[in-house]
Amino acid sequence: MFVRILPPEVRSRIAAGEVVESPADVVKELIENSLDAKATRVEVEISKGGKRFISVRDNGTGIHPEDIDKVFLEGATSKLGSERDLLSIESYGFRGEALHSIASVSRLLIRSRYFQEVEGWSVYVEGGKLLSKEKVGMPVGTEVQVRDLFFNLPARRRFLKREDTERNRIAELVKEYALANPNVHFRLFSNGREVMNLPPGDPRERFTGVFGFRPEEVFDEREGIKVKAFTVRNVNRGKIYLFVNGRPIRNRSLKDFLRKVLGYKTLAVVFLDLPSFLVDVNVHPKKREVRFLKEKSVLGVIREALSTGREAVPESMIAQETETYSTELKVVGQLKDTIVVAEIGDYLYFFDQHLLAERIDYEKTGSEELACRGAIKAGRKLSKEEMEGLIRNWRKLQNPHVCPHGRPIYYRVHLKDIYEKLGRAF
Hints:
The protein is an alpha+beta fold. Helix content is 31%, strand content 27%. The protein folds into 3 domains: 8-196, Heat Shock Protein 90; 203-315, 2-Layer Sandwich (Ribosomal Protein S5, domain 2); 324-421, formyl-coa transferase, domain 3, CATH 3.30.1540.
């Protein structure tokens, strides 16, 4: 007889490994619980990269007193009632595995006050076993403290990364959820020091608060799929943050597709909103992967939207009636017989003439090799008429941002930035 049924405590620890492999996984699950509880403030505190201590506090609706000693049980969830609900998932969490998995491999303290109660409750769980439950005074909301992650699995603890690495993973994760939820105030503390403080604001303000850049905003809607992207082009190190129905996704093939469309030197935050029945988020316990129904059709819509989508104008600019936006084209000249300089509206554009010509030819022929071979080369002097012709054709392109290989076609500077550098009002 070779087949045996593993005892519950062993199965529990194996299952925990699918959901929790690092401190960042713990933080992810706890932040998602806070957001599902309608929190408008989430504070994360860690020590030693989260290996020693993790705390996530929120001002959400809290946990009902009758549920406080059930939330860490296997399969415990308030977000699904039947199998049918899996077809239209709206919440971050739904699998009923997060707190159970965390509790199985740590020393866990949960303090929570339900919004209709005058006091809260506290439970302490160690290695999955409830050790205490008592009343506690606290504001409405929930705090979860996780100590000594993998204390009962020393082999797995040895596989954790260095403190700096684990801390950076957590910081990156907090950024992701902050980008997806700009109306929520996020704070992050590490070893007693505040390292991130992002007050609530609109999505554009949140992008600037996280990255320090003022982004372009593009939006479009086609066939029931909404695409919104905040982009900064020509950065030293491009990166794409992808969200599907508000959920951060790390899908390598989809991000490679987006890099081809947006360019490899683009910092972008891309939000895709589509009917829930077109998306399966129940692919992996960590809910990081998604599967699309009619994937080719979805990708085609995304490509068109990001290539030709309209640039959004902030409401503050619309309100300034005296300020008008002109798209008049004025060729300034050519640098080193390679870069075409043009003034378009309130921006100064620097076009790589070869990459621009290559993109124009590619959209005519559909062949990267033919487009590259036949395009205007760098180092060729162009007449003013040739430069104007290139830019007129650029305005008609399906994707005016990158060459067929993903390199940026242009770099632009707002004239206001130049004026400010010279001490003048724009």
